[in-house]
Amino acid sequence: MREYTTQMDAARKGIVTPEIKAVAEKEHMTSEALMKLVAEGKVAICANKNHTCLNPEGVGSMLRTKINVNLGVSRDCKDYDIEMQKVMSAVNMGAEAIMDLSSHGDTQPFRRKLTSECPAMIGTVPVYDSVIHYQRDLATLTARDFVDVIRMHAEDGVDFVTLHCGITRKTIEQIKKHKRKMNIVSRGGSLVFAWMSMTGEENPFYEYYDEILDICEEYDVTISLGDACRPGCLADASDVCQIEELVRLGELTKRAWAHNVQVMVEGPGHVPLDQVAANMKIQQSICMGAPFYVLGPIVTDIAPGYDHITSAIGGAVAAMSGAAFLCYVTPAEHLALPNVDDVKQGIIASKIAAHAADIAKGVPGARDIDDKMAEARQKLDWEAQYACALDPEHAKAIRDSRSPEEDHSDTCSMCGKFCAVRSMNKALAGEYIDIL
Questions:
Q1: Cα(112)–Cα(120) distance, integer angstroms
Q2: How confident is the model at residue 106 (pLDDT cuts 50, 70, 90)?
């Protein structure tokens, strides 16, 4: 029997858990410094006590920026083996979290497979699974049904759950009054909104929040407070609906911390580039430094097929300005369920954004690999360059497919003997520089 209920409870009691020790080592900080941040709620270590194969990570703005990958089966793509292939590929590429957003079939075996085999943090959205689990239409479900699914996910070992607690019956009137272009684009948020509209009842995740906190405290599940009113287009960014929900999420954060339950707060969404930093600062103020978990943000609405790029642009600025956790976006966003290649492209784009932000905010050790790359490039050492690359196989494949002539194989086929690095190395060594 352990002496604490959650990682936050342990930190407040001065207990160095195995998870706190492991995360402190990864982040190049002392366990004591990390414990203080966990105790204050500024870092979340999502670690369900039933997820025994977890390789723990910390989520907080002062730590390395973490990446989440959304996966799961749907009615049109039902193959769990393919999804598991995506999961392990994502973990191998450096994703720290996997969210199982399955919306078809018997979801529990796949969820249990994740928490028994996957070392990354596992997240879910219980409101999705409620309809699937009970095999009943949304309007026939009760508040008790929703709460029971949260308990089931907690028992299955899920490390964090996204709960759309911040919208209430007042939100229904706001959405009707403010005439957003895209209304609610959060899938979970729209389901809660629809359930309230059809039943006339209050949001069950808000009404039974204290009972939900008891479940999360029992299993050490982190609550990811979902942003039901996140903007789905630039026109809706930073509007009344989004900001008022954020204020309510700040209140719910305090209530969770009083139960020793860790919290992350989810954020936008589609946001113009000039509003990204301001959104991060507002969240940090209203939610008292709780880790911010953002989708993108996507900074333009016109790039379907390339939204991994629009997302990486927004994600770099967001993480540099205080976001702690980036939810990847793939080229298939707004279009289809991502395939294996889409997943890879989404992860790489998010990892670039996260790494760029970590360098900008001075995370210890973040730039070390960049300095190694510079040394390798200066020496024209191609194998060393591949070793430093985010995707070594892709880099090598490009060079191999367009290899230079034999007599200047130390350069690339772009510059050949006009290579600036080659010329400078020879000039500084006092050697003759042959070009033709």
A1: 13
A2: confident
